[in-house]
Amino acid sequence: MKTILAIALTFIAITTTVAANEIDKRQILNINEMQRDHVLTEMRALLTGTQNILDALLREDMAAVARYAGSLGMGMVHKAEDHLKAILPKEFMQLGMSVHKDFDQIAIDAESLKDPKHTLRQLSDSMKKCNTCHAGYQIRVKEPTAQPEMHPSHTHHQH
Ligand code: HEC
């Protein structure tokens, strides 16, 4: 037990002396606080949406599946993504768009085929893209604003 604790403490001591960017080797997306809020708000909507789809699938309510999936489709994008297109890497945007397209397809198929298993397969396949992107990128906020501890509610902007 003592040894384990000693090892753990040593590990903590070592890791805290290593610069943060050497620990997390994923490509850095340098964006500002508002852009970060925009991306992460969309991310949370994706997680909520996929959970809602799973819940609807469980009830075999394919109309609800189509509705939830549709809300995560390309329609979700047009709102405020133009300013991000110029900033974020092309590959990042393409991966993101392809996920939105997947959800449009999931909605179309849920409506027409009404086959929960088919939807599950599509969802599982599409969610590999969530993993691919998360494994490759991290967000770092640049140009800290006048108030470093900006509360999220202050960063709300037009969607
Ligand atoms: C094109 C890239 C990309 C795709 C695709 C993607 N994400 Fe993300 N996601 C990110 C990035 C970048 C972050 C921030 C990661 C970091 O900075 O450590 C993130 C963060 C998140 C977070 C944390 C949100 C928060 O408030 O901190 C959730 C939840 C999430 N993603 C869910 C999903 C789900 C679910 C999917 C797929 C349906 C998905 N993401 C697809 C890039 C992506």
Describe the structure.
The chain has 159 residues and is mainly α. The chain has one domain (26-145): Four Helix Bundle (Hemerythrin (Met), subunit A). The protein has seven helices and two strands, in the order ααβαααααβ. The chain has helices at 2-17, 20-23, 33-58, 62-71, 82-85, 90-112, 116-136; strands at 27-31, 137-141. Strands 1-2 form a two-stranded parallel sheet. Helix 3 (33-58) packs antiparallel against helix 4 (62-71), helix 3 runs antiparallel to helix 7 (116-136) and helix 6 packs antiparallel against helix 7 (116-136). The chain is globular. The termini are far apart. The mean pLDDT is 86. Bound molecules: heme C. Heme C (HEC) is lined by residues 29, 40, 43-44, 46-47, 50, 92, 95-96, 99, 127, 129-130, 133-134, 137-139.
Ordered list of secondary-structure elements with their pairings:
Layout: H1 2-17, H2 20-23, E1 27-31, H3 33-58, H4 62-71, H5 82-85, H6 90-112, H7 116-136, E2 137-141
Parallel strand pairs: 1-2
Quick overview of this protein structure:
This protein is mainly α and 159 residues long.
Name the descriptors:
159 residues, 2 strands, single chain, binds heme C, mainly alpha, Four Helix Bundle (Hemerythrin (Met), subunit A), globular
